[in-house]
């Protein structure tokens, strides 16, 4: 794998850990406490805070800020201009850094453009958050979430195809992996 590529306009503070093959593009700022895995990509104007952990092969599109207390596991996709928060009730005149709520985005999840992930929640593995959705609670693995506030309207395969919403065992129409779909769960079998 190749070395880290950091564009000359990017700022990477001393102490940041960045894995092999990661690409850091125009006007990105990565704070010194950030830990970033291998093979990641950070598009134009991305911010990564100090208390941030990012796995391998994570793709962060333009204009995303990953604030303190956010963890992105391997293979996560963050669409353009999506938003993470870290304080539930911010006020400019009240310092609440000791009240940050942890947000975890599990392996393989995708977050669409302009979506918002309100702090303190977990997005399950391979979940798919639609463009513009506002996540205000934990998201089950493989869930397809849309709207404001986000509601589950279906299930997604690990390969990114929509699955049947009917209760029972169903194959993915594209890759053939079978899933057991229940009332509020979807698991590969």
TrEMBL record:
Signal peptide: none annotated. It comes from the Bacteria. Pfam families: Hexapep, Hexapep_2. Transmembrane segments: none annotated. Belongs to the transferase hexapeptide repeat family. This is DapH/DapD/GlmU-related protein. It comes from Chromobacterium amazonense.
């Amino acid at each position: 794998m190749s070395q880290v590529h950091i564009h000359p306009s990017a700022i990477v503070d001393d102490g940041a850990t960045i894995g092999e093959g990661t690409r850091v593009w125009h006007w990105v700022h990565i704070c010194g406490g950030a830990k970033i895995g291998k093979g990641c990509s950070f598009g134009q104007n991305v911010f990564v805070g100090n208390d941030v952990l990012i796995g391998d092969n994570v793709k962060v599109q333009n204009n995303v800020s990953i604030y303190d207390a956010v963890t992105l596991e391997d293979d996560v996709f963050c669409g353009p201009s999506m938003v993470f928060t870290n304080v539930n009730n911010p006020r400019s005149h009240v310092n609440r850094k000791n009240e940050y709520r942890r947000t975890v985005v599990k392996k393989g999840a995708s977050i669409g453009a302009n979506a918002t992930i309100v702090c303190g929640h977990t997005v399950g593995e391979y979940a798919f958050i639609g463009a513009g959705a506002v996540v205000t609670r934990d998201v089950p693995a493989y869930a397809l979430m849309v709207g404001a506030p986000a509601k589950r309207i279906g299930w997604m395969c690990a390969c990114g195809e929509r699955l049947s919403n009917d209760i029972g065992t169903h194959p993915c129409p594209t890759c053939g992996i079978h899933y057991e779909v229940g009332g509020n769960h979807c698991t590969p079998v």
